[in-house]
Amino acid sequence: MPHITTPNRPFSALSRDEQVRSLLDQMAGESASDPVRAGRAERLEQIKDARPDLTWRQIADAAGVMSERSAHEWRKTGGITYEHARHLCEFLEVDLDWFWRGSPSETPDLMDRLNPEGRRQRQLDEIERRLREIQEAIDELRESVARIEKALRKGDLTRHFPKSGSPDGRSGSKARPAKAKPAKA
């Protein structure tokens, strides 16, 4: 049996679940005494204190676990998985970086940086107007492609290319000759 210990008891004195958790924690490079994990436990406690209406059952449900006991364990150890933390932070509308690492998100508010005078709404309106124009152009292109494909299926390109019936606009003898297909033997 491995000689892994927890802060208070030798490995052999742990329950089967505690042994598994201890091994998994050590494989992941985290232990109950890890300051990052302890920080997560503190931040979870802060969230809970700030939201007294929130129950540990609701926290467990939001994180996607079946057991309320898991949420209580997280409060003590900070041993929540990243995936459960992500679900929980979405539910609580809390920054995942802050919860997981203890640091605020490093993503700057780009609108403030690009537009420090506070003309956000006008800038957003302009962006939306340009997006609508782009979408209209894309829709027109799709319609043109559909008409051309339909004409190709019918063999009638003169309607779409009236000068010559060819996409390059050449007419008569100037039109590119069709490539001859090799004869089959």
Helix content: 55-70%
**What would you say the CATH architecture of one domain is?**
Orthogonal Bundle
- CATH topology term of one domain: 434 Repressor (Amino-terminal Domain)
The gross shape turns out to be: elongated
Biggest sheet, in brief? none
Number of strands: 0
- At the first level of CATH, the class of one domain is Mainly Alpha
Number of helices: 8
Distance between the termini: 77 Å
Structural class by secondary-structure content = mainly alpha
Q: pLDDT average, as an integer?
A: 75
* Low-pLDDT residue intervals, each spanning 5 or more residues: 1-7
What is the H-and-E element order? HHHHHHHH
Strand content: under 5%
Radius of gyration: 32 Å
Strand and helix layout:
Layout: H1 16-27, H2 35-50, H3 56-63, H4 68-77, H5 82-92, H6 96-101, H7 110-114, H8 120-154
Q: Can you describe this structure in just a few lines?
A:
By secondary structure, the protein is an all-alpha fold.
Word description of this protein:
With 185 residues, this protein is mainly alpha-helical. Among the domains are: 34-101, 434 Repressor (Amino-terminal Domain) (Orthogonal Bundle), CATH 1.10.260; 111-167. The protein has helices at residues 16-27, 35-50, 56-63, 68-77, 82-92, 96-101, 110-114, 120-154. Helix 3 (56-63) crosses helix 5 (82-92). Residues 1-7 have low confidence and may be disordered.
Name some characteristics of this structure.
185 residues; 434 Repressor (Amino-terminal Domain); 8 helices; disordered N terminus
